[in-house]
C-alpha cells in the first residue's frame, strides 16, 4: 500500500508499506496519473519525517492496483524503507524522483523504469551499493534519463535496454575514484580507476550510442576479468541491436578464444549457455569442454540438450565391415 497526495491533478507517492521487498508503483490512482516519488520516500531519518510533516493532512492511501484504501493503524503493514527495499518497478508515468529517494537502500538490487523521467533528484542512489540490474524502457522522442542513472551507479551494472520491440543486453563495468595527495604541492588529485567511466560516456546528448560502446572493447579486454569481458561480448552478440559487422567479428573472435570463460559467464542462464554452444562450438572437443564445465558445476539440466546438440552436429559414423 502507498501513502500519496494529489498535486495539480497528479499523484505524488510519499511512502510505501508492505510485507515483501518487491515494490510496484501503480501507474494511476483512480483516474489520476502517478508522476512523482517524493524525496526520501524509501529512506529513513529526519529528511523523510520533514517531508511527511509538510504533507500535512492532505495524505491518502491506495493499494498496489491504485485503488483507494483505508486501514486501521494496528493493521498497517511495516514501512518499506532502507534495507527492506529489494526490487523496485516504476511505471512509465513517473516524471520526477525527489532528492535522496533511495538513500541507504543498501539491499536494493534491481530497478525497472522508463527513460522518460525528467527530474532525477540529487543523491538519489547514495548508499545503494548492491544495485546491479537495471531494466530501462526507452521512450522515443523524449529526453532520456539513462545516462543520469548509470552515471550515479558506479558498481558493475547489468542493463536490459528495451526500445520498441527490440532489446539489448549491456554491461557497464565498475569504476571508482581515489584521492591522491601530492604533499609538497599541497594538492589532492582525483584518479579514476576502471574503464567503467568511459562506458558511461557513450551518449550523444542523452541518447545511448551503441557504436561508442562497442568501440571501447579493447579497453575492457585489458582492464577487466575474462568473465566480465565474455559476458559483455555475449550480451552484444546475443542481442545484436545496432551491432556493426566489424564489431561483431571482434566480439566473436574473443569468444572463440575464451570459450570456457564464456561458458562460466553463461552458466546462470540456460538459454544463453545453449546459444553459446550452438553458435560458437565448431569442433567436437569444444562441445566436450562445455559439457565437462556443466557437469563440473552440477548444472545437470544442461547436459541432455548439450549432448543432443553435439549428436546432431557430430553424428556417430556407422561402422562398416568387409569380408
Automatic annotation (TrEMBL):
Gene3D superfamilies, sorted: Ribonuclease Inhibitor (3.80.10.10)
Pfam entry (one): LRR_5
Domain of life: Bacteria
Protein's UniProt name: Leucine-rich repeat domain-containing protein
Amino acid at each position: 500500500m502507498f501513502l500519496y497526495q494529489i498535486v495539480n491533478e497528479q499523484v505524488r507517492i510519499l511512502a510505501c508499506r508492505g510485507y515483501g521487498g518487491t515494490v510496484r508503483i501503480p501507474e494511476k490512482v483512480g483516474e489520476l496519473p502517478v508522476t512523482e516519488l517524493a524525496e526520501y520516500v524509501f529512506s529513513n531519518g529526519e529528511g523523510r519525517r520533514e517531508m511527511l510533516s509538510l504533507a500535512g493532512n492532505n495524505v491518502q492511501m491506495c493499494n498496489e492496483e491504485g485503488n483507494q484504501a483505508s486501514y486501521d493503524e494496528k493493521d498497517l503493514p511495516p514501512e518499506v524503507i532502507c534495507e527492506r527495499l529489494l526490487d523496485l518497478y516504476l511505471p512509465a508515468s513517473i516524471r520526477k524522483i525527489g532528492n535522496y529517494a533511495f538513500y541507504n537502500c543498501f539491499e536494493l538490487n534491481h530497478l525497472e523504469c522508463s527513460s522518460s523521467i525528467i527530474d532525477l533528484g540529487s543523491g538519489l542512489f547514495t548508499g545503494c551499493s548492491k544495485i546491479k540490474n537495471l531494466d530501462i524502457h526507452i521512450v522515443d522522442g523524449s529526453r532520456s534519463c539513462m545516462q543520469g542513472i548509470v552515471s550515479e551507479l558506479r558498481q558493475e551494472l547489468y542493463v536490459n535496454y528495451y526500445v520498441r520491440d527490440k532489446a539489448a543486453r549491456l554491461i557497464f563495468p565498475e569504476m571508482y575514484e581515489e584521492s591522491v595527495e601530492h604533499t609538497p604541492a599541497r594538492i589532492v588529485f582525483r584518479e579514476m580507476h576502471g574503464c567503467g567511466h568511459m562506458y558511461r560516456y557513450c551518449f550523444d546528448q542523452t541518447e545511448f550510442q551503441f557504436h561508442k560502446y562497442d568501440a571501447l572493447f579493447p579497453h575492457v579486454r585489458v582492464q577487466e576479468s575474462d568473465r566480465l569481458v565474455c559476458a559483455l561480448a555475449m550480451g552484444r552478440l546475443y542481442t545484436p541491436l545496432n551491432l556493426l559487422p566489424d564489431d561483431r567479428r571482434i566480439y566473436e573472435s574473443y569468444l572463440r578464444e575464451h570459450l570456457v570463460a564464456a561458458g562460466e559467464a553463461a552458466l546462470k542462464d540456460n538459454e544463453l549457455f545453449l546459444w553459446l554452444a550452438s553458435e560458437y562450438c565448431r569442433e567436437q572437443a569444444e562441445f566436450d569442454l562445455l559439457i565437462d564445465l556443466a557437469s563440473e558445476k552440477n548444472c545437470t539440466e544442461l547436459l541432455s540438450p548439450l549432448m543432443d546438440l553435439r549428436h546432431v552436429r557430430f553424428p556417430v559414423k556407422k561402422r562398416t565391415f568387409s569380408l
